[in-house]
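pinning this so it doesn't scroll away 📌
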Amino acid sequence: PADATEYTFVGYFSKEKSSVERNNLACILVLPPFRGQSYGQLLIELSYELTKMEGTIGGPEQPLSSQGFHSYRSYWRRAIVQALLGVLPQAEKYLRHSCGRKQHSSEDVVEQRVFSLSRLAQLTGIRIEDVLFTLEDLGLLGNWHGKHMVCIADDTIQQVISTRRINPGMRMDFNGLQVDDDAIQESLSEQESNDSDPNSSNSDSGSSADSS
């Protein structure tokens, strides 16, 4: 808008503060006038950035609607390609600075050309089963000594980007993401409490992520 102080509500997403299944999104909505403008992708990306700030991995509440599945598949493809191309070193430094957690131990992702599924999950915040699905979907998964590994030349990834029409560019400015540190710590404490309680379970919250 002409007046920079004016804002327009275009949509939202909701999530549980603490989820046994590590769901990072329960419901997502983009208002009809703003659909088809990638706001759904932006909200999905925000949900994963919050997950990475908490130092965990996660994904949407299941089952996904058909539209929700296509939106998530598009995001997963882009996030995995970014990680494989080494576009995420700055994001990794940002995570270490923001939440001070140690699980992101690589000093230089660009030089690390072999990835495990768990490594990709740590870098992207995406659940391992969704990482596995995306790699198989893109034809980028290999097997080495009985373990799933990703070791791919950059030109192969570039070919996948071209044929699948993936835009690997970053969408969010991490420096503009402001989150209450107390809220992050509270969420982590509740998650750790759930992890330690074998009898904890989520109530049925019904439905599925849907976006555009």
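📌 and the second one:
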Amino acid sequence: MEYSFNHQYHYPYVFLNDEPFTDEFKEWTSNVVSSKVEYGVIPHDHWYQPDHIDEDKARANRDAMVRNGVIYGGSVSYRNMCRFNSGFFFRHNLLQKYRYYWRVEPGVEFFCDVDEDPFVFLQENNKVYGFTISMYEYESTVQTLWETTKEFIKENPQYVANDNALGFLSDDADGESYNLCHFWSNFEIADMDFWRSEAYMKYFEYLDSKGGFYYERWGDAPVHSIGVGLFARKDQIHFFKPIGYRHEPFQHCPQGDIHRKGKCWCDQRDNFDYQP
């Protein structure tokens, strides 16, 4: 990130964790970046399983997922993370002064020089969400997410945007079923004012009240994707094709002239976009 992009722009970094960062971590991270760094602790209620969840029911469902070999099926902390990223990160005190963000996960790789400022691009083109990789979700983790979404839309039709991206989310003209497509949200460059909007906040609160983050394993990727797919116009969603990116085990590697112009060092044959 620093080598590929931020050494030119010096945007601040914000690190968030459910417990205080060590002095060693703060010293190391602040020494390797070229800009201001802030470190925050996530409020307890934004991270931990809420009191309205029936833990016996949640535990039974986790155990069933473990028996069925569902990835992270038994993890409460993973569910905490998904719920936090779905509905709380943009509410953190340290982020209130910002509108746009670039989500960066531990261990990811960026393969190309990013010379065009993606934040300026979003602002100048009225985009609210940018991605590099899209894929299918595990059906067993979101069994009731779409039905719950349809219930919300039935009660709140005013929030659905004209010319939205329903066609990305459903193969049915009327949106009867969810095709499991989602933007892989470990990479996001997006507008937090969209997440802070009445439409998305009401949607998240509705989802949270149903308990699916814990009774199933609703991820922030399908939740964000459905939210932006329904409440934004499809022309407000952007594929950052020139940004080479890897989060194990998948990567987006720009192709052809874009690869050359970006001085990318990823193998063009290893590109999730074009895998059957």
